[in-house]
């Protein structure tokens, strides 16, 4: 019995040795580096040298060549890997299709929007319906507030939805859109720290983030100083000093090259006409009691012109130029295209800058339901192009665009989409795509560059 067990063990051992020998022999027939899924035969495919290798092609190629005797395995593997690397885009590279920025195209930008995810509540999207100043007229129109996200205080609906201006992905998307439109300078709506418009929250804390993202896209940022409470010569000096001290060292902070070769910050001053010229002169003339001239905080100050008489007040106040802001041809003297030639002539004769403001249209009936008479239809982009054409006729040094995202007044060129809810049908850009007004801006930016070259010859 013991002899039988011994014989059985010897036979089993010999059988195991035989199996191991066969496995070793088979292993010598397969390349050492051909582990499972290793694309060692991919270099045999001629298309690898012309286009990107897809994963399914790798597996199919492997199946086709697995039974072949393969030589030069290391070289072939290197070809496959190098081809894949060549087909991969560089990390963090911006899209090459983006147009170069035009620093003579300034665009008004608002960072006052909020939503529950980032702000704990909706801000500005829930804008109230503003009553008419005449109670008899006001009684004929609805009252209350909008109820986002389906019902927002705008006649168009943004592609990004009822977004928050604090959302980094939104800020980046905005910068990319403005850069794609070949604008160069963001005119950022600004209130001093702790202050805001009556429907918003303070936004000065967002300025560093906006500057950083603007810099990523080679955009510059200047400031649109809103009519904050008690705005006068003293508070303006303090706030201009604050802006320059805090943000003036950032590479995205805008400085304009003057005719004398100086590089100065620029500030747009909204509703400047509500302050009398004598107060402004204290700040903006060399002899003023609060003069900012020839100090480290000297800058170019651009006043809003609404009525014709304002041009004389602007000159007397010591401003460096004027802009027209409103995207409503015929609404005011300043926004009427046919007046731009005479305004430009006045500015030229008084050493002032004239900055006409163009816009794609105007509609604010979502927040001012009684204001239909000031609506300006976009006419599928023709209104916008007419405004650009009128602006180029006066050969301005700078053109301003109203606006990137003033959704309440329907002047935005930001991407918008068709949307219909139970009670609201929003306007849209059809028959064109959501980017049509960005593309039109880019078109006129290039046209401006070419015509400016002719002006300077």
Structural description of this entry:
With 457 residues, the protein is of the alpha/beta class. Helix content is 34%, strand content 10%. The protein has 13 helices and twelve strands. The strands form two sheets. Strands 1, 3, 4, 5, 6, 7, 8, 9, 10 and 11 form a ten-stranded mixed beta sheet that branches. It has a two-stranded antiparallel sheet with strand order 2-12. Helix 8 crosses helix 9 and helix 12 runs parallel beside helix 13. About 15% of the residues have low confidence.
Q: Residue share in helices? A: 25-40%
Biggest sheet statistics: 10 strands, mixed
Beta-strand level of the residues, as a percent range? 5-15%
**What's the multimeric state?**
single chain
Low-confidence stretches: 24-92
Distance between the termini: 116 Å
Number of strands: 12
Q: What Rg do the Cα atoms give?
A: 33 Å
Structural class per helix/strand content? alpha/beta
Separate helix tally:
13
Overall geometry = globular
The chain-level mean pLDDT equals 86
What string, H for helix and E for strand, traces the elements in order?
HHHEHHEHEHEHEEHEHEHEEHEEH
Question: In terms of topology, how is this protein built?
Answer:
Blueprint: H1 2-28, H2 55-65, H3 73-87, E1 105-109, H4 116-119, H5 135-138, E2 157-158, H6 168-180, E3 185-190, H7 207-216, E4 220-225, H8 233-247, E5 255-257, E6 263-269, H9 277-284, E7 300-304, H10 310-317, E8 321-323, H11 340-349, E9 353-355, E10 357-358, H12 382-393, E11 399-401, E12 416-417, H13 436-455
Parallel strand pairs: 1-3, 1-11, 3-4, 4-6, 6-7, 7-8, 8-9, 10-11
Antiparallel strand pairs: 2-12, 5-6
């Amino acid at each position: 019995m013991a002899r039988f067990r011994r014989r059985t063990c010897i036979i089993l051992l010999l059988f195991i040795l035989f199996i191991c020998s066969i496995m070793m022999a088979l292993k010598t027939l397969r390349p050492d580096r051909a582990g499972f899924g290793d694309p060692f035969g991919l270099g045999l495919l001629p298309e690898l040298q012309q286009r990107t290798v897809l994963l399914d092609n790798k597996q199919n190629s492997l199946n086709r060549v697995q039974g072949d005797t393969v030589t030069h395995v290391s070289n072939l593997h290197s070809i496959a890997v190098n081809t894949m690397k060549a087909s991969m885009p560089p990390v963090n590279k911006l899209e090459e299709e983006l147009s170069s920025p035009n620093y003579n195209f300034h665009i008004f930008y608002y960072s006052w929007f909020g939503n529950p995810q980032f702000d704990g509540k909706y801000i500005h999207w829930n804008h109230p319906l503003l009553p008419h100043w005449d109670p008899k007229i006001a009684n004929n129109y609805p009252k209350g507030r909008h109820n986002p996200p389906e019902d927002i205080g705008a006649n168009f609906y943004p592609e990004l939805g009822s977004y928050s201006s604090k959302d980094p992905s939104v800020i980046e998307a905005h910068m990319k859109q403005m850069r794609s439109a070949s604008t160069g300078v963001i005119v950022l709506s600004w209130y001093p720290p702790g202050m805001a418009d009556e429907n918003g929250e303070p936004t000065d804390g967002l300025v560093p983030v906006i500057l950083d993202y603007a810099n990523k896209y080679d955009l510059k940022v200047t400031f649109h100083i809103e009519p904050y409470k008690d705005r006068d010569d003293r508070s303006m000096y303090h706030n201009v000093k604050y802006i320059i001290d805090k943000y003036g060292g950032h590479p995205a902070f805008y400085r304009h090259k003057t005719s004398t070769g100086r590089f100065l910050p620029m500030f747009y001053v909204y509703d400047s006409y509500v302050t009398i010229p004598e107060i402004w002169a204290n700040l903006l003339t060399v002899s003023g009691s609060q003069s900012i001239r020839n100090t480290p905080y000297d800058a170019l100050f651009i006043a809003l012109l609404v009525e014709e008489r304002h041009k004389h007040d602007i000159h007397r106040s010591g401003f460096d130029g004027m802009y027209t802001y409103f995207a409503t041809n015929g609404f005011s003297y300043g926004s009427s295209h046919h007046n731009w030639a005479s305004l430009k002539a006045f500015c030229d004769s008084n050493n002032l800058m004239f900055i006409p403001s163009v816009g794609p249209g105007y509609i604010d009936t979502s927040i001012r339901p009684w204001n239909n008479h000031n609506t300006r239809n976009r006419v599928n982009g023709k209104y916008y192009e007419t405004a650009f054409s009128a602006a180029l006729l006066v050969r301005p040094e700078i053109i301003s665009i109203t606006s990137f995202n003033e959704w309440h007044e329907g002047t935005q060129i930001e991407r918008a989409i068709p949307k219909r809810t139970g009670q609201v049908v929003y306007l849209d850009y059809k028959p064109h795509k959501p980017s049509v007004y960005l593309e039109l801006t880019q078109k006129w930016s290039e046209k401006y560059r070419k015509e400016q070259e002719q002006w300077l010859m």
